[in-house]
Specification:
It is built from ten helices and six strands. With 198 residues, the protein is of the alpha+beta class.
């Protein structure tokens, strides 16, 4: 039987852990329809997408470009920064054209219904849509079977993740994993095997 002291310590630990993530939880779960998002609080913006990456530059310059606080817009409760007034104007004219899929979370994570990670400097445009990855290893794993992985990620985003709390979803799917779940180590081995064959 657990002692009351141990239960109090556990409760205190859980409270501290939950409070420590409050800032991130709020930033990643804005009130608008475009959520959850890979966002941080960076004053004056409370929900800064991709740490301020200019989402139009992927399309216009073919590369990652950091935005400036001088040029900013908001869309559905999400804050964005741009490298120039022209980039801001492009976004303002057609915001959904430039927004990353899956709220800017790692597309490979979304294959497993896990809204987590996303490095603005690791990306790909597929059929005119922007996808962000958690690093080159995640991108390589996703590309092993891009068509199937896109279909899985799209389904999980639409049916399970979009509009829900990122932290609860992440916790749920780290405990109750999808049937086709692969660990980072397993994916790395699959990528290495595929590279060895080519």
């Amino acid at each position: 039987m657990m002692s009351m002291t141990w239960l109090r310590r556990l409760a205190a630990l859980l409270m501290v852990a939950s409070l420590a993530g409050c800032g991130a939880m709020l930033a990643q779960n804005p009130s608008g329809a475009y959520r959850p998002v890979n966002a941080v609080a960076d004053k004056p913006e409370a929900n800064l997408l991709l740490k301020g990456a200019d989402v139009t530059a992927y399309f216009t310059d073919g590369k990652y470009v950091q935005g400036s606080p001088q040029f900013h817009s908001a869309y559905e409760g999400v804050d964005l920064r741009f490298a120039s007034a022209q980039s801001k104007a492009l976004f303002d004219q057609a915001p959904t054209k430039y927004l990353p899929q899956y709220g800017g979370y790692c597309a490979n994570g979304m294959v497993y219904a896990i809204p987590w990670g996303g490095d603005a400097n690791t990306w790909k445009i597929i059929d005119g849509k922007l996808y962000i990855f958690g690093g080159q290893g995640s991108k390589d794993a996703f590309e092993l079977d891009e068509k199937t992985n896109l279909a899985l990620a799209d389904t999980y985003w639409a049916e399970e993740v979009r509009g829900h709390n990122s932290f609860w979803q992440r916790t749920k799917r780290m405990i109750f994993r999808v049937p086709h779940y692969k660990s980072g180590e397993e994916l790395a081995k699959m990528v290495a095997a595929a590279k060895a064959k080519s």
